[in-house]
Amino acid sequence: MANIRDLRQRITSVGNIQKITRAMEMVATTKLRRFQGRTVAAQPYSEELEQLVRGLSGAVASQPEAAGSAASLFQQGAADKPLGILFVGSDKGLCGAYNTNIQRKLAEMVKPLHGNFALYVLGRKAMAEAHRNNYPVAAYLEHIELEKVSFTEAASIANLLVDDFQQGKLSGVAVCSTKFRTMVRYEPCFDPFLPIAPAEGEQAAEPLLEPNGPAVLGRLIPRYLETCIYHALLESITSEYASRRFAMKNATDAAGDMKKEITRLYNRARQAKITQEISEIVSGAEAL
């Protein structure tokens, strides 16, 4: 039978842990709601913009000059150059399988590349994974905190990827992040970013662009790419807090179950001690 004092200390310790995990669950729930609101609000704009650009990409494929300076963003880069990958992880732990899932997805997608890729890393956990596996890292975006990311910072990431692609350093660019579906469903993804591909099943369109194609697409394409990165980051941080909330809820429930079990053992030990003391008193009285 366990010592009563030890059991009492364990009940106190588990209770303290339960308070901490419950507090972390509440914080994660609050932040999840905030980021979820921003993600849901931005989604229609992102989808409409993507549909517009992919619809125009068919026309650009047949008339590259219509895109002006943005024409190179619709064309595949040199095949011998590495694939650039924006790898988005978290800065903090205690978020369940969030980082494990995205790391597994990255490993699955880079395996056939045989090292011919370059990572643009966002998040301390993602950088730690890159170091563990000796992945080639082109840039560690350490100055950007995902939880506080703004559209301006997302635009700077998009511009970095676009510049390296246009300078011929990369054969293409992909984004390895996490898509937010619901409060309990979020999945890792590996989406192509550059070159811009036309929507599947669509034929080349004949759009009428005013004042002219290069002027319109020259402003539209950069904004589209910046929006893609910003929305991907929003979905990632929303998924992270959804995973953290779920993990902290499970930890709180597990602590509650453990506390109940230890309390049961404590009560049994206490009852056994009381019974033993009564027996000793009775034995002593009979001896007299």
Question: Could you characterize the architecture of this molecule?
Answer:
There is one protein chain. The longest helix has 75 residues, at 213-287. This protein has a five-stranded mixed sheet with strand order 3-2-1-4-5, with helices on both faces. It has five helices and five strands. It has a single domain (21-200, 207-247), classed as ATP synthase, F1 complex, gamma subunit (Pyruvate Kinase, Chain: A, domain 1), CATH 3.40.1380. The model has no long low-confidence stretch (mean pLDDT 85). 60% of the residues lie in helices and 13% in strands. With 288 residues, it is α/β, with parallel strands linked by helices.
Describe the secondary structure blueprint for this structure:
Layout lengths: L3 H59 L20 E6 L9 H13 L6 E6 L1 H9 L4 E4 L10 H16 L5 E11 L2 E10 L18 H75 L1
Parallel strand pairs: 1-2, 1-4, 2-3
Antiparallel strand pairs: 4-5
Helix pairs in contact: 1-5, 4-5
Question: Biggest β-sheet: count, sense, barrel?
Answer: 5 strands, mixed
Number of beta strands = 5
Number of discrete helical segments: 5
Share in helix:
55-70%
Derived structural class: alpha/beta
Mean pLDDT: 85
The dominant shape is: elongated
Any low-confidence stretches, pLDDT <50, length ≥5? Answer: none
Which second-level CATH architecture applies? 3-Layer(aba) Sandwich
* Whole-number tally of structural domains: 1
Explain briefly what this protein structure is:
The chain has 288 residues and is an alpha/beta fold.
